[in-house]
Design a protein that fits this description.
By secondary structure, the chain is an alpha+beta fold. The chain has one domain. The chain has 4 helices and 11 strands. The strands form 2 sheets. The chain has a 9-stranded antiparallel beta sheet. It has a two-stranded antiparallel sheet with strand order 1-6. The relative contact order is 0.15.
């Protein structure tokens, strides 16, 4: 009988402990991932707010602008207006731009976030590849505001890139870690920025098959 009492006491003790743990855990505030809680957008504009932008890399400088169609005033007194028709490359060539390549970069600029920022002196730019950036993107918005993103080298595990957002001259720099996808967005050959890509040249060593001669 004493054994049964001891067993019952252990069962009640376990139930009481479990109830206490459940109660205390239920009262705790929900845990939020620290990285996510600190995430801040790089810029405060939307993709459709961009009117023009440039991408400067060590090997090329490209300029793009929204092309628009001018709509004349009508008989009812509606004033002249313009309607965007797509993106066009202005430098180094004047040609329609590849909409996918443009959208990929602008979407990153408008939606990307960073959860880590640290301050360094301008003398330490070279440690993060910001003295000779891998790319500099300048954006002009419809409201005539402009923004600049300076992209440096990847961090030690190549998951992020060091970057500056709208940096000021001769002041301490706020270095951010931005998504590695920016590297693919800006590091493109010129042909990939064009809508009309060159067709592959035929291989002269392969001749078209001859028609079978009549028997």
């Amino acid at each position: 009988m004493k054994f049964q009492r001891t067993s019952l006491a252990l069962v009640f003790a376990a139930l009481a402990l479990g109830g206490f743990v459940y109660y205390t855990e239920s009262k705790k505030p929900p845990q939020i991932d620290q990285a996510k809680s600190n995430e801040q957008p790089l810029f405060n504009f939307k993709e459709q707010d961009v009117q023009a932008f440039t991408v400067q890399t060590p090997i090329q400088t490209l300029a793009f602008a929204q092309s628009s169609l001018t709509i004349p005033p009508n008989q009812k007194g509606k004033p002249q207006s313009s309607s965007p028709t797509g993106w066009r490359m202005q430098k180094p060539e004047s040609t329609p731009a590849d909409e996918g390549a443009v959208a990929f970069l602008l979407n990153l600029l408008a939606t990307a976030k960073s959860d880590r920022t640290f301050t360094v002196s301008p003398a330490k730019k070279s440690e993060f590849g910001l003295d000779q950036p891998s790319a500099t993107v300048e954006v002009k918005l419809n409201n005539q505001q402009s923004h600049r993103l300076v992209i440096g080298k990847p961090n030690f595990n190549r998951n992020f890139l060091y970057a500056l957002v709208d940096p000021s001259e001769n002041k301490d720099l706020s270095v951010l870690l931005i998504p590695i996808n920016f590297q693919n967005a800006v590091d493109r050959p010129l042909a990939e920025w064009k809508r009309d890509k060159p067709k592959p040249k035929p291989n002269p060593s392969i001749s078209p098959s001859a028609s079978p001669s009549p028997q």
